């Protein structure tokens, strides 16, 4: 069965770039929208954006100036880069698969990875 | 952005209880409304999509209803494994937005 797994540093310094990768195992990363979602401690889930396997992206306007999503179908991976991070970017980051057949619901999620922004 | 609210924010219930959680959108999302379950240390799980369609593998005690701005998630007979936090989410327009969550505990 298809699984998603996030990977990347758990600690990032302020003003630096947060980089995470999501690996798709047990299936292909083609023909889906791949999304990143985060949850700051004690707060609700926040949608960061999605990337299609063609490279088409859609970003949350609140983060658009700092975020880049990309996909590498040959490696079955997709990635998140968030620039100029501050403490407000401390959160659990989730990768997820969006299904157009399910009204763009996220039908598959990774376990999430905690990223702290601190010097 | 479409704002999502949920009520209650938390509830206490017993095994076998019927539980209803409501979700409201700040504008119509037609039926682009999804429900998720979150348990500590586990991947978030899609329960309901398109307001009332039960995701494959989800027990039939979970059901969803509503359209436009008002939606409900119902658990017909609460089981021990259902104690969790539940979120609604609209996927009608980007940025997709989530409700604040409803924590269901004993």
Task: Describe the protein.
- The complex is a heterodimer of chains A (119) and B (106).
- Chain A is 0% helix and 53% strand.
- Chain A is built from no helices and eleven strands.
- Chain A has strands at residues 3-7, 11-12, 18-25, 33-39, 46-52, 57-59, 67-72, 77-82, 91-99, 105-109, 113-117.
- Chain A starts with a strand and ends with a strand.
- By secondary structure, chain B is mainly beta.
- Chain B has strands spanning 4-7, 10-12, 19-25, 33-38, 45-49, 53-54, 62-67, 70-75, 85-90, 97-98, 102-105.
- Chain B is globular and about 35 Å long.
- Chain B starts with a strand and ends with a strand.
Largest interface: A-B, 25 and 25 residues
The mean pLDDT of chain A is: 93
CA radius of gyration of chain A is 13 Å
Topology order of chain B in helix (H) and strand (E) letters: EEEEEEEEEEE
**What structural class do you assign from the helix and strand content of chain A?**
mainly beta
Cα-atom radius of gyration of chain B:
13 Å
* Overall morphology of chain B: globular
The H/E string of chain A reads: EEEEEEEEEEE
Strand residues, percent of chain A: over 45%
Distance between the termini of chain B: 34 Å
Keywords:
heterodimer; A: 119 residues; mainly beta; 7-stranded mixed β-sheet; 4-stranded antiparallel β-sheet; 11 strands; globular; B: 106 residues; 48% strand
What are the SSEs and their pairings?
The complex is a heterodimer of chains A (119) and B (106).
Chain A: E1 3-7, E2 11-12, E3 18-25, E4 33-39, E5 46-52, E6 57-59, E7 67-72, E8 77-82, E9 91-99, E10 105-109, E11 113-117
Parallel strand pairs in A: 2-11
Antiparallel strand pairs in A: 1-3, 3-8, 4-5, 4-9, 5-6, 7-8, 9-10, 9-11
Chain B: E1 4-7, E2 10-12, E3 19-25, E4 33-38, E5 45-49, E6 53-54, E7 62-67, E8 70-75, E9 85-90, E10 97-98, E11 102-105
Parallel strand pairs in B: 2-11
Antiparallel strand pairs in B: 1-3, 3-8, 4-5, 4-9, 5-6, 7-8, 9-10, 9-11
């Amino acid at each position: 069965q298809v699984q998603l797994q996030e990977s990347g540093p758990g600690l990032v310094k302020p003003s630096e770039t947060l980089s995470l990768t999501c690996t798709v195992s047990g299936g292909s990363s083609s023909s889906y929208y791949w999304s990143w979602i985060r949850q700051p401690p004690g707060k609700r889930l926040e949608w960061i954006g999605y990337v299609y396997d063609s490279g088409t992206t859609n970003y949350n306007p609140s983060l658009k100036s700092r975020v880049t999503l990309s996909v590498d179908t040959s490696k079955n991976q997709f990635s998140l880069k968030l620039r100029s991070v501050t403490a407000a970017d401390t959160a659990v980051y989730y990768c997820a698969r969006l299904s157009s057949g399910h009204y763009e619901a996220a039908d598959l999620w990774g376990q999430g990875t905690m990223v702290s922004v601190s010097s | 952005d479409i704002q999502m609210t949920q009520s209650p924010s938390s509830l206490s219930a017993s095994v076998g209880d019927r539980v209803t959680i409501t979700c409201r959108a700040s504008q119509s999302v037609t039926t682009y409304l999804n429900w998720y379950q979150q348990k500590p240390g586990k991947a978030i799980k899609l329960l309901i999509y398109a307001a009332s369609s039960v995701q494959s593998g989800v027990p039939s005690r979970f059901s969803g209803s509503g359209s436009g701005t008002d939606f409900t998630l119902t658990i017909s007979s609460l089981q021990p494994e259902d104690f969790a936090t539940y979120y609604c989410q609209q996927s009608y327009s980007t940025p997709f937005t989530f409700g604040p969550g409803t924590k269901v505990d004993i």
